[in-house]
Amino acid sequence: MARFSMLDIALIRRDPDRVRESLLRRGLDASPVDDLLRYDEEYRLALTAVERAKAEKNRLTATIAEASDRAAAARELRPQLEEVSRRIDALEQAARALSPSDESSPLRALLDVMPNLLDASVPDGADETANLELRRWGEPRHFDFVPKPNWELGENLRILDFSRAAKLSGSRFVVLAGAGARLSRALTAFFLDRALDRGYLEIAPPLLVSRETMWSTGQLSKFADAMFADPQADLFMIPTSEVPLTALRGGEILESSGLPQRYVAATPCFRKEAGAAGKDTRGLMRLHQFDKVELVWLTAPESSFDALETLTGHAESLLQELDLPYRVVALCAGDTGFNAAKSYDVEVWIPSSNTYREISSCSNCTDFQARRASVRFRRDATSKPEFVHTLNGSGLAIGRTMIALLENHQQSDGSIVIPPALRPYTGFDRISN
């Protein structure tokens, strides 16, 4: 399979100021752009040197072929031919060492850590405090009693067991029991059914994927420390099913008539949460293992930003059916993820935090991931293949939805009312002792 850098080196060469501006907006150093251009020039000069040497070899070969005494010409020119051949081998080796397809080349190393170019519509700002609120739905509930956090509610109802999970696996794990396990299963089925109603194709992907798959979707090497892996087998436990869903059509050329491709998967996800020490240590908010329903689109470039609006709307509609207040924010430049050109966070109201917390992040990754995974499409039989645009979003994270349900729909007696839309899936309308 052909391997491409995540950022098009031709784009960097053509418009380096745009790349510098995007890096600066993210709060990153822009000087690597100059290094990229220098290594790229060295690589192209090396390719030119190879072509010149090959042209010289061709000239010598033609001279022999055109000589009246070919045997004599061959004897005379053989030393030059052998010298040129040795030079071609050395020059090709030098060019390969500089190539962006060579894992050890300095050009490849820089390209691998270059984030996606931000879309012009992304708001400026250094961190989440500069994210721009776009809209809200629903009103946070005003309780006439002191509401409990999800961990207290779950333990009192005997549906969440953190102490036994710690005995089994350590911190940041949970055992779901009884109605808690059924609620998790019901949410998964509910989210999947709503996605299928909207034309998504359900996929059950592997939970262990190769290094190549992780690399092709932008998880390596920048996020390697956050992954659980088996070094001996060189396999990684998926941090999100975005990874296998985005890479599913890797190396393929799709027909434009088949776009968009929309996939949904419900899988466990595994993350070390290494950067979250001391944060959200109680409850379901930040676990090493959690379930999530993921939505992924492969679409034509000209429709990807409209697709982002549609994808975000799909995530929002789930919260509306569950009667959970939320807001949608546009992530600012400094808070936009490595792979994304533009992202919206859907944040649900969490009473125990007295604020909105992310439950779905919906992103347009433009051709950034598709270039690495080599997912292309052809507009017609005579057209040159183009890279698709990839989008992803949670629809939704199961654990965080459970937090929102438990806390927003709790009653003064400690029971939890199940929203009507979910009752056909749970088989009960309330969780109580």
Structure at a glance:
Helix content is 40%, strand content 20%.
What does this structure look like?
Strands 1-11-12-13-16-10-9-4 form an eight-stranded mixed beta sheet. A three-stranded antiparallel beta sheet has the order 5-7-6. The chain has 14 helices and 18 strands. A hairpin with a 7-residue loop joins β14 (376-378) and β15 (386-387). The protein is of the alpha+beta class. The protein has two domains: 9-112, Orthogonal Bundle (Helix Hairpins), CATH 1.10.287.40; 128-431, Bira Bifunctional Protein, Domain 2 (BirA Bifunctional Protein, domain 2, 2-Layer Sandwich). The mean pLDDT is 94. The chain is elongated, with a radius of gyration of 27 Å. The longest helix is centred in the N-terminal third of the chain and has 35 residues, at 32-66.
Reconstruct the topology from this structure.
Blueprint: H1 9-14, H2 16-25, H3 32-66, H4 70-98, H5 106-112, E1 132-137, H6 150-156, E2 160-161, H7 162-169, E3 175-176, H8 179-197, E4 201-202, E5 208-210, H9 211-216, E6 229-230, E7 235-237, H10 242-247, E8 253-255, E9 261-270, E10 289-299, H11 304-321, E11 326-330, E12 342-350, E13 355-364, H12 368-373, E14 376-378, E15 386-387, E16 389-397, H13 398-408, E17 416-417, H14 423-426, E18 430-431
Parallel strand pairs: 4-9, 8-14
Antiparallel strand pairs: 1-11, 2-3, 5-7, 6-7, 9-10, 10-16, 11-12, 12-13, 13-16, 14-15, 17-18
Helix pairs in contact: 3-4, 3-5, 8-13
